[in-house]
Amino acid sequence: MRLNFISAAFAFALGAAAIAVSAEGFDNSRTDTFRQLELFGDVLSRVESDYVTEVDDAALIEAAIEGMLESLDPHSSYLSPDGFRDMQVTTRGEYGGLGMEVTIRDDMVTVISPMMDTPAERAGMEPGDHIIAVDGESIVGWSLDDAVALMRGAVGEPVSITILRGEDDPFDVTIVRDTIPLRTVAWREEEGFAYLRLAGFNEHTTETLVRTIGEIREAFDGEIPGIVLDMRYNPGGLLDQAVSVGDVFLDGGEIVSTRYRNPRENQRYNARPGEMLRGVPIVVLINEGSASAAEIVAGALQDRERATLVGMTSFGKGSVQTIIPLRGGRDGALRLTTGRYYTPSGRSIQATGIEPDWLISSRRFDVEEAEDEQMSEAALPNALENENGEDRPVIDFSAVEQPPEDWEEGEDYQLHRALEVLRTMTGREQASLN
């Protein structure tokens, strides 16, 4: 099984002699590689014999594999057998946890995006938050797998996490673990329009979306006046689901293309003729927590002029990861960056992101502080550069629309403005807010 995300096969002989012998007969071009493997064997042998306490060979080799993959880019990693099973549960079923997409930044577990309707979202977790301790135990410098394993646990059990946010003093948040639901699609009526929330891309997203659109059409007696598609804080997921979701909103033509090291593996994904929402105006909400598969859909709808984008520039993850099971998963799996994706116009959003048509913030901010607090793919260690040499656009925060000073805290200003944009597109009169 191979899964493409847009989210050891090594048999190390112990001792330098065995590795050195294995190099005999190979082309000289491989000499340096096997010399380095010999060095690895020397170091491992020395640690085994001379370290102050006995060591676990398997743990040492796993750590070496993890270090090798993490040196490539922020998204390549080794999944232990337990980690591989957790990943399968995440994409197929439910699990007990907090509900947030995280990465390592500055040796700290850093929130990319809280998931919809999860304990993390309800606790007010924000992109860029650093998690520095769990139940009082520092996790600074821990591997991502170890930190995530500590935060997961039985449903109903509380966990205390210590947050470092900007220049504020660290503070503790107690969150009760809950079942992280598969549900990635939800909708409600907002001011006479359909508000459609898309929170992720797992194996059931498209079928749920199609069913939900049927419910929306029935609720509006067959005539949907307009849709706000909210993909804020959507961390992405499966590539094939991004393609099939794009297919729902487009009538033929390209959705996305992927390019790999071997040009023969490059692929172009097109929508099928026949759009489910023909003629329905669409406004898409994105922000700095919208990543990978969410950016594929947003970029396709923007390039194809099928929707107007509102919000803030997206995360900028333009790479594809392939899950490669090792010995059928018995030795875990590799999560390896194998390609890049491009929007229909040929844009690579790697490290740059998707810039919305309307730059609108969800909250008021100080311009200087906002410039220092940007969370993006480009800010992650070892992030792939944009292959076209493009940098993430510098946002002129003085030009970003903010909520008015008297805006009521807790009210969703970006959604408010998205509905206004949609109302302008449809020519409908503003519904009463009373």
UniProtKB/TrEMBL annotation:
A Pfam family it matches: CtpB_N-like
Keywords: Hydrolase, Protease, Serine protease, Signal
Keyword Hydrolase (UniProt): yes
Region annotation (Disordered) ranges: 370-393
Keyword hit for Protease: yes
Domain PDZ span(s) in chain numbering: 84-154
Signal peptide: 1-23
Gene3D superfamilies with a match to the protein in the record: 2-enoyl-CoA Hydratase, Chain A, domain 1, 2.30.42.10, 3.30.750.44
The family this protein is said to belong to: Belongs to the peptidase S41A family.
Protein name: S41 family peptidase
Upper classification of the organism: Bacteria, Pseudomonadati, Pseudomonadota, Alphaproteobacteria, Maricaulales
